[in-house]
Amino acid sequence: MNDPFLEKHIHDIPDFPKPGIVFKDISPLLASTEARIKMTESLVQKFKKDNINVVVGIESRGFLFGMLMANALNAKFVMVRKPGKLPGELIDQEYELEYGTDTIEIQQNAIQSNDNVLIHDDVLATGGTAAAAHSLISKLGAEIAGYSFMIELDFLKGREKLPASKTHSVLHF
User: Domain Phosphoribosyltransferase, which positions (predicted)?
Assistant: First the structure.
């Protein structure tokens, strides 16, 4: 069951970015100190005993709470980004979209084989991006403790695409 306080800070924007899509706008949540604190606590609560030492945030809205979660878990923060945005030696992972493919990248030295990683993104929709992040981190040999999302769009069944790990979403729509 959704927390009514947090839910009221998520606004539906119809027909954005294109007709037929109802965009979940987190801007009101970001504008509220109380809501940000409560969301951060809700995101990390299921993982506090998992000895997380790396939080991976997926571009770009996954960076917002990923950093706050890393602070709350006393962990380092690592970015997973779209191509051309990170310097240095990179590894990449292509993944399927509804119409075509996309790619994400991570710095090769950002995660070590003994790291225990929590993958975070703002929304779990079809699961493709989170599954691709899992593949990237697995290539680096790290342990994946789980996934954390602010919002899960249950009707898209993205959870089914994620390799077996603990998956926690704060709000469900």
Answer: 38-146
The pTM (predicted TM-score) of the whole model is 0.96
State yes or no: is 94 an active-site residue: no
H-type helices in 18-172, by residue range? Answer: 27-31, 33-44, 61-72, 128-139
> Domains of the chain, with CATH numbers?
47-172 (3.40.50.2020)
Q: How far apart are CA 14 and CA 151, in angstroms?
A: 17
**Average pLDDT of the segment spanning 143-150:** 97
Active-site residue identified among 98, 143, 152, 160: 98
Q: Is 54 within 8 Å of 115 (Cβ atoms)?
A: yes
61 flagged as catalytic: yes
Residue 160 CB: number of other CB atoms within 10 A?
A: 9
* Rounded Cα gap, residues 117 and 56, in angstroms: 7
Note the pLDDT tens digit of each residue in 98-109.
778 999 999 999
